[in-house]
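INTERNAL TRANSFER SHEET
From: sequence group
To: structure group
Subject: Neprosin PEP catalytic domain-containing protein

Please process the attached sequence and return the structure record in the designated field. Keep the field labels unchanged so the import script can parse them.
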Amino acid sequence: MADGRWGVVGYRLFQSQDGDTIDCVAAHEQHGLDHPLLRAHAVQTEPPEAPRGGGALSFPSGSATNGSGSGSGSGAGKDSRRGAWQTWHHGGHCPRGTVAIRRTSAEDVLRAGSVSRFGRKRRHRKAAAAAAAAAAAARAAYAPDVITGNGHEHAIAYTAPSQQPVYGAKATINVWDPAIQESNGFSLSQLWVLSGSFNGSDLNSIEAGWQVSPELYGDSRPRLFTYWTSDAYEATGCYNALCPGFVQTSSRIAIGASISPVSSAGGAQYDMTLLVWKDPKLGNWWLSYGDQLVGYWPAQLFTHLSDHATMVEWGGEVVDTRPGGAHTATQMGSGRFAAEGFGRASYFRNLETVDADNSLAEVALDAIQTLAEDPACYDIRKAYDDDDDDDDDGQHSARGGWGTHFYYGGPGHNPACP
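Return from structure group:
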């Protein structure tokens, strides 16, 4: 049994090259099922109905050839895209019938400073400021996660709430390892699936992406993460599998595990494709990472999202505690502004949503709005292309069709962002 061994409770475990321990836990014994609302819940063993137009998904495990299903491109030797995967896969995968869980250490809990807050977001959503400009306030009123509070800053694209219900969202994101200045800071890139009141206490949110958080993980590696809440981050939900709720089905993907390799400026770009959607058969909200089904959030966890979503967001978020009285130098994305484009700036490409017929639909460019609270620190630029169009710099794109996409990010502190 190369690179793996049996743990003290009889399950296989892996010691990852990055220092993580990955436990292979029997699916029916996972912590996610301990939620009070899931006492009678049985792990879904019937494959969900995948959205039409999205390709095949492996259930519960399958080939791990690349992380996003994207191929390598060309173009001056630099326009290459490859799939990002997880570091622990160098040791293998968990056996069928088990799920891969990143082990939480005592050091992880101690870094949080509070057991009750461990694995949970610090509540930061605020109502739009009365003094905000009318245009900014109008956009902010639709976007619950873009209201600056407690130092959280964003560069996001979002769909305005409409009468048409939303049943999922998808995007491909390139992965970086941004520098984090504060020990309790983080930088993340994610998608949000949302419903409920944006300035009340009944907001429902499902979130997934990559995150660098020294406080949560003890290092500066980008890691696959999830989050959920049904009460605007007051008392429900948490990151990853740190509290009950998310039910994992994958023996190959460990939420909270590091992603490797990562993109480099002027070099290869490594990206991952995330899809969150509501299974029309059983009603649970599923997550896929590349072509791998990871698990699901049971519909019972939610109020508004028990039926459908009303809004989707994609983009980046950082924490700015103004260390030393100056804006944080924590980077968002690659740490470079959107104008630097492919190979240097971070991107979200092929933005899609899932409709009532369980079909993926490309998001029209004019159907999304963008917002960055302080574009001198972090900014965003949306665009559209297809197989026949030129890219953003006027040169023919060797990347293939990116559909609706955007570049985003920035360095934080700089002469224009004091």
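Handover comment: Residues 134-142 form the longest helix (9 residues). The domain at 150-390+397-409 is CATH 2.60.120 (Jelly Rolls).
Transfer complete.
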